[in-house]
Design a protein that fits this description.
single chain, 261 residues, mainly alpha, 11 helices, 73% helix, disordered N terminus
Amino acid sequence: MGHVRLGTLPRTRSWRDVVGFIADGESVEAVANQALAASNKAFGCIQNDPGFSESVWILTQLAVAAQAADPRVFLESVGLKFDAQSSVADVAATLHEILDRWSSQRRERSDFGEMAQSALVSAVSQHLNDKLGTIVAPTADDVHRSLAQLGRTSEFGRLSRSFFARLAGDCMDYFLSKSLGAEVGAGRRFVTTAQVAEFEGAMATHAYEAAKIVEQFSGEWMSKHRFEGEGRIGRDETDRFGWYALEKVKAEMKARSSDGS
């Protein structure tokens, strides 16, 4: 659907409401709710964003591969080649390269798609770092054993939660960062830049807590569709999964804003 820029949206009336909430010192949840309202038009325009679709596809295929007879062969069959990787940084770099090459070949880039790609790389990197722990120089086998754990229902659920939380948080930050800087100083919402960082951290926490709602759902979805697809899951299924999961996070964030939780 071509190149979609989100930068036009902060001029809307709903975005001015967000700015007002920041200036008035409203809660994190209230501002998050307003940020989501301000971004709804963008989400509607890019609901079928190719970059988001591709990121969700890779997210799911990493988990499907973990249950394959030969995970490396399966990953290569869907365009992912990690056999030479020996570190978390290598895997992250390969994911970046794969996604960049995909975008360049199709000439389909959008702000939202790039956020999705970044969220995927961050979520996978976090998973690997958590599993490898204190290993100073993990081998390629260490990395692949960690990726193989994504075949577990609970592990894919946690990876999915991390991905959607980062994506939702980044979308809000995209809007909020345009105004936070103007609210620093005497008599304003934030006295110091450190308070801005604290606020942004609270927004990220808000998104992560709301994304808890997709953790169990994602794991169960993966188990069901992997079984029904006899070890494979198609793009139509992953597209529906991606947007349903994101809608669940958005709805939960709105509900948390309304009830103050």
